[in-house]
Amino acid sequence: MNSKVCVRVPASTANLGPGFDCLGMALNLYAWLEMEYADLTTIRLIGDNVQGLPEDKSNLIYQVAQQVFARAGLPERELSISMYSDIPLTRGLGSSASAIVAALAAANALIGHRLSNDELFQIATQIENHPDNVGASLFGGIVAAMWDGKRASHVRLEPPEHLEVLVVIPEYELSTKHARAVLPGEVSLQDAVYNLSHSSVLVAALATGRLDLIREAMRDRLHQPYRASLVPGMTHILEHATERGALGVALSGAGPTLLALVDARSGRNDDLEAFMIDTLRASGIPARTMWLKPEGRGVAILTPDDKSCTFIEKLKGELQA
């Protein structure tokens, strides 16, 4: 058993268009979590992306850690928790999933890795209520996952070599609860078949490196048409971004972030970025962009001399100064 651990967990994007609640991909944007046993629980949240979250025992990270202890047959423990995140909250980049996975991995490391990665995946899926984001943050790469309400299963794919990701992040929050509230309770058989076929081809295209198939395979009829009103300009981007160099484009998770998959060899990055930013601005939506890459590594347990752990210690010191 350890007395103190530090973990790094990647952000994630989910759905990738037609793969609603079943496709996820890890991105090279991270959150760091330090956790150790303490006499009295303290929670320190560092940076703008975690401000406003609870700093008492109602905090999600503390609650998830206790679930790990309980699953291992151990009593509740007082904890000292410090977290820093580059992942923006409620923007569709898996901020809650990254927190859940970080808490699970850190607490499990504290108790000597008594739970398997599959057990952590099951707990994370039950908390998040879908397996795509948590699967990507836990295992890295591209994850195709299924969940029947009792057990989750996944297959991990290595991302294609030349794949890049442009995310355009509007300057407003959109909760998953709100984004799900606009979805219909039923869809037509035609739309269901459409999404099944497109998500199947998308997974096959990503697995085999058939980047030429992504444009059509990322089209969706299950959730994006209903969420379009929540992100002004989104429909125009979905329809025309491939003309500006995107392999395919989608709403990232529940949004409002929009995501474009790009072939790094295309040479059209500036044109695509300007098109997406200008489209949102024309609809009155200020936004910022990030160029990211798929992250092949999932959650990582860092050694005490790792620079990321030193980074957390430095941030804590700056707050105390």
Alpha carbon gyration radius: 20 Å
How far apart the termini lie comes to 32 Å
Which word captures the global form? globular
What kind of sheet is the major sheet? 7 strands, mixed
Strand content: 15-25%
How many H/I helical runs? 11
Q: Order of helices and strands, N to C?
A: EEEHEHHHEEEHHHHHEEHEEH
The secondary-structure class comes to alpha+beta
Helicity, as a percent range: 25-40%
Number of strand elements: 11
List the helices and strands and how they pair.
Elements lengths: L3 E11 L8 E15 L4 E5 L13 H12 L7 E7 L9 H16 L6 H12 L3 H8 L2 E6 L4 E6 L5 E8 L5 H6 L7 H20 L5 H4 L6 H4 L6 H7 L7 E4 L6 E6 L5 H14 L4 E6 L7 E3 L4 H14 L1
Parallel strand pairs: 3-4
Antiparallel strand pairs: 1-2, 1-11, 2-4, 2-5, 5-6, 7-9, 7-10, 8-9
Helix pairs in contact: 1-2, 2-3, 2-4, 3-4
Structural summary, described in words:
The chain is 36% helix and 24% strand. It starts with a strand and ends with a helix. Helix 1 crosses helix 2 and helix 2 runs antiparallel to helix 3. It contains 11 helices and 11 strands. The strands form 2 sheets. Strands 1, 2, 3, 4, 5, 6 and 11 form a 7-stranded mixed beta sheet that branches. The protein has a 4-stranded antiparallel beta sheet with strand order 8-9-7-10. The chain is α+β, with helices and mostly antiparallel strands.
